[in-house]
Amino acid sequence: MARGKIQIKRIENSTNRQVTYSKRRNGLFKKANELTVLCDAKVSIIMLSSTGKLHEYISPAISTKEMFDLYQTTLGIDLWNTHWERMQEQLRKLKEMNRNLRREIRQRMGGSLDNLSFEELNVLFQDIDDSLKVIRERKFKSLSNQIDTGKKKLKNAEVIHRNLLQALDLGDDPHYGLVDNGGDYDSMISFHSGNPRVFALRLQPTQPSLHSGTGSSDITTYHLLE
Can you give the residue ranges of the K-box domain (predicted)? Predict the structure, then answer.
């Protein structure tokens, strides 16, 4: 029974497409090897799969470079010189771009301005002014974030203070309290390894000193959290 004719179109299923590529590639390489042996031909095949893998067949008696040299000689062209010229042109463009960028940097630093016209100076001034606006906006945003962070720390310190007083039932005891420094809780709160430490102070009543016989007031510090 004769096989049905296969419609030549792209295989949608990726697995089937890869299997078909592998089988037909091996078939081409087999035919190329037969041509090399039977006809003493020089055959070279270069293939790239859809996944980017390179497969190559080259007759054993010749290298890939020699095959390219023969190709150029037969057609009377020079692929290497053409490629070299393209590389040189690309290098020239990159050098020119580098010189322009360096000149722009010097101009933004206040140098290389002598050859600029009034219009070019005006454009440069506008560019720098726009850049300054962006920098100012970023600076103000950074300051705003720092202020918000400070407020959150202060709020957390106040919450910790209230919770400590409630936990120790010291809310109505006039002998305990936190040092008031104009409402600045940072004066009584320190941070160790990222964790806050809060101190409560107990004011001792004035009593005679055992050594001097004179009255004094003592302050005892309790490390409540650490």
Answer: 84-174
